[in-house]
Amino acid sequence: MKRCLRTGLCAFLFALLLPCLGMAAAEQPTVYVIKRGDTLWGLSQRFLSDPTYWPGLWSKNPQITDPHLIYPGQTVRFADGRLEVVPPVQSAEKPAAPQTDEVAEEKTFTVRGNEGRLIEQGVLPTGRIIAGQHSRIVLGEDDIAFTDIGSDMGAVDGQKFTILRKSTTISHPRTNEIIGTKFYPLGVLQLTQVAPHGSRAIILNSFKEVEPGDWLVPYHEVKRREISLKMATRPIKGMIIETYSGHDAVATGDVVYLDLGTDEGVEVGNLFYVVREVSVEKLLVDKVVKPLPYEVVGALVVVNTGHRSSTALVVKSIDAIFKQDTVVTAPR
Predict the structure, then answer these.
(1) β-strands 255-258, 249-250: how paired?
(2) DSSP H/E element including 191
(3) Separation of alpha carbons 213 and 116, rounded Å
(4) HSE (CB half, 13 Å, CA atoms) of 278?
(5) Cα–Cα distance between 267 and 251 in angstroms, integer?
(6) Which ranges of the chain have pLDDT less than 70?
(7) Which of 153, 165, 186, 278 sits 20 to 30 Å CA-CA off 221?
(8) How many whole angstroms separate alpha carbon 244 and alpha carbon 312?
(9) What pLDDT score was predicted for residue 190?
């Protein structure tokens, strides 16, 4: 009988302690060392199982004034939905690397290679396709075409060119200044017989139908590739001026064009946040409201740059993203 009482008492005490043990386990922080390419939304997905929580994770950590300022090698702790940067150990000897089982792969984004681009005002093609064999006007892979590129331009047999299709002219939505013309890659062409003022060529591959009048520019390989994140060297602010699809609203996986390029310090791999001003209902708020923090609605990564424009892939959208939305490198 006493043995049964002891067993029952132990079970009762264990039941009382179990919530406390669970609470202690829940509060146990996770220690992690930042790897190259880590982002706040990636960390929120990894440690909070909620990739859409990254704006909240950022806002709960005011010491990170720029979401990019989490550097490889930094040690951080996750506890109660917060990220804490662990100060480096100050000692005469080099501190040992923190022991952790967490190993994050470098954050990269795959692009197709046919995202298109804006060819800026004043840039001209090397040449054009002027005819197809047997007067064909729709051409594809292995078809013969004729170009206006000749030896008088320095062309030689075997030279390759990228075929582009001219689309719409893009003006800045606010200034009406012409930024450039939207182009789509169609395939690759190789010269097979060069004459003084023209050439015979073969279309090596094509993604879409090729026609006379299509542009030829110096060859650059169009293929799937990985883009690694790269922190911007300074704060940059701009606007989405066009989309690949031409639609006003886009989301994750879509391609957009920005009014920012290398002249503003933009580089391939730079991360931009899509932000909007917070709308205040003046009928309900009877006071003057000073500027509020931006509302963050998405993020995009630059995959191609020009001098005054760039192509970017939308990698996160919490809400629909529109033409003329503002993009910034630091949404504080």
Answers:
(1) unpaired
(2) strand 178-194
(3) 18
(4) 12
(5) 22
(6) 1-29, 36-37, 39-41, 44-45, 48-72, 80-85, 87-108, 112-114, 116, 121-122, 222-223, 280-290, 331-332
(7) 153
(8) 10
(9) 97
Domains 117-218 and 229-328 share a fold: yes
Name the residue with tokens 């001219």.
166
CATH, domain range 117-218: 2.40.10
Q: Which of 282, 160, 286, 261 has its CA nearest to residue 216?
A: 160
Q: What is the pLDDT, as a whole number, of residue 19?
A: 45
287 to 278, 280, 284: CA distances (angstroms): 15, 10, 9
pLDDT (0 to 100) of residue 239: 96
Cα–Cα dist 161/112, whole Å: 19
Model pTM score: 0.64
CATH class of 229-328: mainly beta
Cα distance between residue 93 and residue 97, in whole Å? 12
Which has the closest alpha carbon to 310: 262, 272, 246, 274?
Answer: 262
What tokens appear for 134 in the block?
């047997």
Q: Is 36 exposed, middle or buried (0-12, 13-18, 19+ CB in 10 A)?
A: middle
Cα 144 → chain centroid: 37
Q: Which two tokens stand for residue 88?
A: 């480096």
Distance from C-alpha of 75 to C-alpha of 112, rounded to nearest angstrom: 34
Nearest by Cα to 312 from 246, 227, 248 = 227
Q: Please state the domain extents for the chain.
A: 2-87, 117-218, 229-328
The tokens describing 54, both together, are: 């990254």
Pick the CATH number of 2-87 from 3.40.630.30, 3.30.450.20, 3.10.20.880, 3.10.350.10: 3.10.350.10
